[in-house]
Amino acid sequence: MMKILRSEVLLLVVTVSWILFDASKIYADTRNHESIIKNENPIAFPGAEGYGRFATGGRGGRIIYVTNLNDSGEGSFRQAVEVESGPRIVLFNVSGNIELESRVTIRNGNITIAGQTAPGDGITIRNQTVYVGANNVIIRFLRFRMGDVLQVEDDALWGRRQNTIIIDHCTMSWATDEATSFYDNSDFTMQWCIISESLRNSLHEKGSHGYMGIWGGKNATFHHNLLAHHDSRNPRFCGSRYSGRPDLEHVDFRNNVIYNWGGNSGYAGEGGTYNMVNNYYKAGPGTRSNRDRIFQMYPDNGRNNQPAGIHGVFYTHGNYVDGFPRVTADNWIGMHRTMLVPFDDLRSVIEFDKGQISTHSAYDAFEQVLNWAGACLVRDAVDSRVVNETREGTFTFQGSKGSTGGIIDSQDDVGGWPDLISKEPYLDTDGDGIPDWWEIKYGLDPENPDDGNNHDFHSFYTNVEVYINSIVQHIVDQKNIGAKANYIDVYDVFTGEPEIVINGDLNQTVLAGESIQSIVLSWEHAREVMVNGLPQGIDLVINNESNEAVISGTPLQSGFFEFDITTLGGIIKVSKFGSVMIENGASLIAENKETLVQRLLVDTEIADVVINFENATEVIHNGLPDGLDLIIDTESMQVFLSGTISDAGVYSVDLTTEGGSTYTELAVLFYVYTGGAEIIKHGAPSSNQEIEFGEAIEQFFFRWENAEDVEITGLPDGVVVIKDYEQRHAILRGRPLEVGIYDYVVRTYGGLTEAEFSATFTIVEPVSNSILTSGLNQMISVHPNPFDINVTVSTYGGDELRSLQLYSTDGRLLREEFARGLTHKIHTAELPTGIYFLRATTIKGDFKTIKLIKR
């Protein structure tokens, strides 16, 4: 048995691009260090994240195959998900469009619907809505494209007032109400989905609609989704207007891509707490207004189940707004309000709980979502088009009833539903959900219907789940590259670990022009292998049917190359490593290595660069800046680089040999500055500030010149640095989390000289140590404070307490208690001495944040 500790972030790839300025490098440097959650509880499937990740679906239940595309009856989708009951895993023996004649309701929970098992192009549900009306539901790799054929006003897929649901890698579009709405659910996740092209001028009773969805819930996660070509509600946060429980409403909205909204991006949020983190906003040709908006905050109007005026509180951080660097640098410029509530009452400087999740930067999320969102095992033509339009900032189709710029009015405007090809399904003799070939390969019995629900391979998943998860494991492996996970899953692998058998030498040295000795490899307990890092000229021939591969050929590059062989689609990933050294091949060698990276002033001659080349007849170059001369002498076999660069910037002169049995490459880098490094403070507020604890600093920024970057040390926790590399700005903002004197230093690096700037933040106790915020009718206080063991929270003004949340200074939720009455005592004997923050919420939804000091 093997014990595995694994986050779903399997690989971190770091690339460096030498360009003049790169807006993708805008990021937030927080001072807090996040603790890693060790999770030993079974999750829905590898890659399941957020609050819905602990759904078990149909685990341990019976297998039901969808065998036809009929609306109803034996073997239909409706029969499996609406009629049948009990724990069940729904698999597909057919691909194609399922044309519903009436709504399908998932009314019996404990169900897993595994769309990735469809043989061929996958499944699309059309003509009617699918409603999730049950608990403990897993839905993966399906398309829900409703359309207007039956003149039905509804969402493509939706659900409310349920719990423990995860929607993964699905596609929703062409709805006549919202494309997909999920709100008032508990422990919910929608992840890696494409939600596109809701129908605007269609048949909604209110007229023009074209809305993405209403989203919310009591611990609801929406992450890594693409929202494209919707007029509005991208999303509309439902808030607590129906539940009347703003203390329970909590949404984590991160790493989503929002493209080409018509009139509005997102809005509302009448009650509750919201993380809006590292999303990517890109207005498009159909965006008529609010191109710089992240979100518009609404108060409740009092027409539902809570008093008027209730509003949400938002932690908004790291969001990228394409074309608006000021909003990217300060997200709260893009947070608009329709109320007279102070921004400090709407804004949290501490991130709320986010569950267990992996987070990309907004820029990386844009690429990963476009690469891997939706039913991407086989993307249909519609998803491929929408992804390309999002990437390029374009549109292809107009609406037929007046909508423009990529916002459509009918599915017919874009050509309707694509045809989907179905292939022959795998043979499953015993009907346990696992094909015979897989059972034989992994040592199971293809005639034993009971072994599908055994745990022969994994402590989290049954055998049939291991199989259906392996179909898309390569997607799981790729999509979270570059992300940071706040958890590690701990589980047991029992048998069937992948194994790679090597026949041949993994580490070889050959002369240029010679072939390597062939390396033959085979593997077990994995779907296939992937090889990375081989030099050009080395061929890899893989036979996935026989589980064999051959590495052979003659290298075309010279130098030293390290490569890896890694299994895919097994219980875990296993790798082997090797190397190839090619000697006496083409070479580029600088006479003085220090000249390969130069830092200099504009209009200053570079240090002459002399590079010798061997075993080649020619050298080609790319990226030569104005003012430099490059001479290639084929007789002396030397490259000479000299001259003067007049424009500041970063330049890379790339050299490649030609005409030999191998080739090689070399880059010469120049950092050109206008003078010595400088740090210039901008903005009216002083860099030396004295503020009361609980207040935010007055925002200002530093600009650096003639240096690669700046480093800022000594800041108090809670003050963050937002860097804009295009403008060379380091913006300081935030709310300090502790009283004290903080001498901070700004230093440049990477220039001809170094510059330094020093200043001080002085954080003092507020006039009232009990209450950090005020302005509402009732007062909330704590006593004693500082305290030793117990602290009592009291409210005055007639409104009773509802809930109390205790946070550490780094924003972690330590405890949540539900209160009733005007006073409530908190027992804290187990807490160490230090500073804490208490969020007290009343029945009416008013709340205060109070600093506590335990002696």
Automatic annotation (TrEMBL):
Alphabetical list of PANTHER family matching this protein: PECTATE LYASE C-RELATED
SUPFAM superfamilies cross-referenced by the UniProt entry: Pectin lyase-like
Gene3D superfamilies found in the cross-reference section: Single-stranded right-handed beta-helix, Pectin lyase-like
UniProt name for this protein: Por secretion system C-terminal sorting domain-containing protein
Transmembrane segments: none
Domain of life of the source: Bacteria
Gene Ontology MF term list: metal ion binding
Keywords on record: Glycoprotein, Metal-binding
